[in-house]
Amino acid sequence: MSKVFIVDIAKCTGCYNCQLVCKDEHCGNDWTPYAKAQPMTGQFWAKVEQKTVGTIPNVRVRYTPTFCNHCKNAPCMAAADDGAVYRREDGLVIIDPEKAAGQKQIVDACPYGAIYWNEALTLPQKCTGCAHLLDNGTAVPRCVEACPTDALIFGEEEELKELLQGAIVRNPELGCAPQVYYRNVPGQFVAGTVYDPEEEEVIEGARCRLQSGGKTWILETDDFGDFWFKDLPEGRFSLVITAKGYKDINIEDISTLDNCTSLGDIPMEKK
Q1: What structural domains does the chain harbor?
Q2: Which H or E run includes 16?
Q3: pLDDT by residue (tens digit) across 48-63?
Q4: Phi-psi category of residue 245: left, alpha or beta, with phi > 0 → left and psi -120 to 50 → alpha
Q5: What is the pLDDT averaged over residues 185-213?
Q6: CB 3.0-4.6 Å disulfide test: which of 55, 80, 151, 184 passes with 10?
Q7: Maximum CA extent, the chain
Q8: Does residue 228 contact residue 188 with C-beta atoms inside 8 Å?
Q9: Angstrom distance (rounded) from CA 8 to CA 182
Q10: Which H or E run includes 113?
């Protein structure tokens, strides 16, 4: 049976524990036949990517743990000579540190940038899924064990099929069939604050209607006059804001193509 990783983005707080324990497990430790020691610098077999989206005052920071995808259609396997990259029965893709020496094309073959070149050892290296620990009876890799929020899950694909429903993989268009799945990946957002400039107060309960391509999203401003349309697709939108006693506001050509959008403070004029 094949093992898979599941990453729940909604649970990741950016603590970097997975990145730290990966270093602790692999730096200075030779786990041949699965891997030589990971260098102290320059390589992150488990890496937390941090991205800031939106613009002031509506800003969010998102964290995404990444590592080798252990692809079913792994380009690194196809690029390697002499079977230097192979797939175990449990689905983990391993670079043989003896056979792979000098084969820099293995690094270049990975479209995800998950394989590193160890210049000192002239060796391609990457996440092994802590295969050495699994073979010794440990249930999960170090990164999964160290995650305090259960944002990382590891197990049999068949046993995790309910959690896999609706999960996505990175860059599916590449056809690599990754075995690392992501849940609750946030979409784009459109946000703003509605206020009365004359009274110098926010407007609570203003009705906000966002539209794009025949789809409509509706919500009301909260106690702070804020509205957040979350998990939107990339595209262009129009927004209509209505509130009792105020003139309607129409905002056109709101784009989420390149980034989440903050409309800032939006004044409403009394009728």
Answers
A1: 3-183 (3.30.70.20), 188-267 (2.60.40.10)
A2: none
A3: 999 999 888 899 999 9
A4: left
A5: 96
A6: 184
A7: 78
A8: no
A9: 6
A10: none
